[in-house]
What we know:
The protein is α/β, with parallel strands linked by helices. Helix content is 28%, strand content 25%.
Amino acid sequence: MSDLYPVTHLTQRGDALYLEEAALNDVARAFGTPVYVYSKAALQDAWSAWEYPENERQIHVCYAVKACSNLSILRLFAERGAFFDTVSEGEIARVLAVGVPANRIVFSGVAKSEREIEFALTQGIFCFNVESVPELQRIHAIASRLDKRAPISLRVNPDVDAKTHPYISTGLKANKFGISHTDALAVYQQAAQLSGLEIIGIDYHIGSQITELSPFLDAQNRLFDLVKQLADVGIVLKHIDLGGGLGVRYQDETPPLPSALIEQSLQGLREAGLTQDLMFEPGRSLVANACVLLTKVEYLKPTEEKNFCIVDAGMNDLLRPSLYEAWMGVENCTVRDANAAQTYDVVGPVCETSDWLARERTLAVAQGDVLAVLSAGAYGFSMASNYNTRARAAEVLVDGSEVCVIRRREVLSDLWALEL
Length: 420
Ligand code: LLP
């Protein structure tokens, strides 16, 4: 039954939806709505899909914390041996808070502040993924002052089209990310002159929700050539980090499996005669399809133009549809007679016309029903806000028939706790 839905371990039994052994209507009753519900088994399965048999070189999977940064989920991956890709002092601190050694942390991002660099250096992270020449100089200066050497990789922008939504495409010349492929060799040579730096790797990240192998392979080939050119001038790297970006199924996409991406990358490395360790930075593919967002139908509102299904989760809870016009599956947790179905726009309570979760969907639904927004684990809770002074949802984790809270729902006093 599971393959009815993109979400792993989501099944229909009788007229009810279950995540693992937990009936979703019961979860909504017990914990309230909106609530993010994660499946532990689905998270484990997603991690396993990235595990690759022993190889002649090390392969490190760095979970991109931004996709879903809940401590319980970080811990689950940490226990499986994950490295972590972070983009702020906050993300680094979260990873450290679950007891992960700093030498399993990679620090990416275009705007690393002095304070963040000093924090990361003092902790002893694995690698700074550097995105510009001034950043390189800043890291060198801080490392020199602290009498340290900062391990660095340069994020190269390979100028390939990831064939994804423009807002989540990062590997084109026009994007703010990375150092251009054309300049990379010279910048490495410049870095090699800076005593506060230890060059250890090279990385790219070309975009997100990429559903074909070809953009990865194009980027990879360009990168491998560069690694050889670097070796020719005496700059020998220890690792190659091929970033994140592997897509998932939301609707009918058929993205490659992680094993296919790893296999192709290994083959490319072998053909290029390169022996470096390999790293990946998946976020979405580890968490998206391990979660549903439950939301209650407050009102059905037929109008001249449209039928609105007004629910209690809005763009502050789940921004992806508003921001990227992302398509996310919506199912009723009480499966009703399909003959009663109508076409609805599923919209939230926020005072914005862009506050919608799904458009033009055929749903058999009644006021008070609980809907499940599917594939909500990646960039769901982590992009939630308090807009309209709305408390952020709870997050719960299902393990078999047990359900436990992994982040309590915010209460109103939380919302102004920091205000004077
Ligand atoms: N590494 C770097 C340097 C990144 O910037 C990202 C994501 C990742 C890894 C993980 O990429 P993933 O495997 O998750 O595709 N909020 C958007 C996605 C933004 C992705 C930002 N960078 C969305 O909801 O679609």
